[in-house]
Amino acid sequence: MKIVDHISNAKGTPLFSFELLPPIKGQSIKGIFDAIDPLMEFNPPFIDVTYLREDYIYKQHPNGLLEKIAYRKRPSTVATCAAIMNKYNVDAVPHLICGGFTKDETENALIDLQFLGIDNVLVLRGDARKSDSSFVPTPDGHAYASELLQHVVDMNNGRYLHDYMEDAAKTDFCIGVAGYPEKHYESPNLDTDFKYLKHKVDTGADFIVTQMFFDNKKYKALVDKCRANGINVPIIPGLKPITSSKQLVSLPKIFHLDIPMELSEAIQACKSEKDVKEVGIEWMIHQCQELKEMGAPVLHFYTMGNPEPTKKIVQAVF
Ligand code: FAD
């Protein structure tokens, strides 16, 4: 079922959902099921599965030469989605990125998703490879999420890349895009970032999922700005509790966000990592309660393969 239909069927009651990463190459699917099982009692209507682009590794040969090899560490987004749908009978939402795909490969991937019965996709540009200083599009691939989105919208209208067939079957994807309450790190300012978010919605995005944030005022400001500018699609807050003191540094560095001083000071005052986890969970419980009051349609958690903190929060909030 489409995410927008899950939301409208809930008639204003907030839903719970979460995101996880596909297994590292060499791990079994069991790790995914172990990360999902503890959360199924809260009836998530959908589960997101991220997509990780290939990166480069260097293999040293006996003669000392280094070989550059393209390597995907977590290769199985689509199969992980299929396994989740098969085992739990919930909607799986694959993330689809621009990086690493030519337009033809994108189109073929979308046909696979449609045939698997996947109704929703979250379309993204994708992050830069670790080996690149900034995002490098694949030759003949899409450079921005809005271009990828347009491609999906075209297929939803029966228009394929090479228009090889009259009356081609229309896909029927419900399409999500990313939004940034604290702006995307490459944007010069919030207004420019917002202009491109609006462009994605005008192009046909059905819902927005936000980057994680720790200050609800930033989510509210984004929602208010969207509504004032005619963006009426659901805006799903993305959430992650702080679970270790290291994250005070790593989360701002990786996700380009602010941690409110009240939270950072409470964490710095903790005597143990166990206390840090409790502070992080308490903060998130409070955030979620407020978000429910603010009318957030879904509370969407970045579990990163660790379901326990999310479970404690959801138990307290739902
Ligand atoms: P875009 O919307 O294309 O925006 C990228 C930047 O370009 C922004 O600064 C924007 O303001 C600007 N911009 C947009 N359009 C234009 C234009 N036409 N001209 C000039 N500038 C423009 N990454 C992954 O690799 N895999 C994942 O599974 C994944 N999942 C994510 C899920 C969520 C909910 C979020 C919030 C992020 C996720 N990411 C993922 C990270 C995401 O790929 C990065 O943040 C990436 O850098 C930007 O992606 P985007 O879709 O927001 O890009």
TrEMBL record:
One Gene Ontology CC term in the entry: cytosol
Q: In which pathway does it act?
A: One-carbon metabolism; tetrahydrofolate interconversion; Amino-acid biosynthesis; L-methionine biosynthesis via de novo pathway
One Pfam family for this entry, by name?
A: MTHFR
What keywords sit in the KW lines?
A: Amino-acid biosynthesis, FAD, Flavoprotein, Methionine biosynthesis, NAD, Oxidoreductase
Q: Which cofactor does it need?
A: FAD
Annotated coiled-coil positions are none
Q: Name one GO molecular function term.
A: methylenetetrahydrofolate reductase (NADH) activity
Any Gene Ontology biological process: tetrahydrofolate interconversion
What the record says about family reads: Belongs to the methylenetetrahydrofolate reductase family.
What Enzyme Commission number(s) apply to this enzyme? Answer: 1.5.1.54
Q: Which CDD domains match?
A: MTHFR (cd00537)
Annotated protein name in UniProt: Methylenetetrahydrofolate reductase
Q: Which reaction does it catalyse?
A: (6S)-5-methyl-5,6,7,8-tetrahydrofolate + NAD(+) = (6R)-5,10-methylene-5,6,7,8-tetrahydrofolate + NADH + H(+)
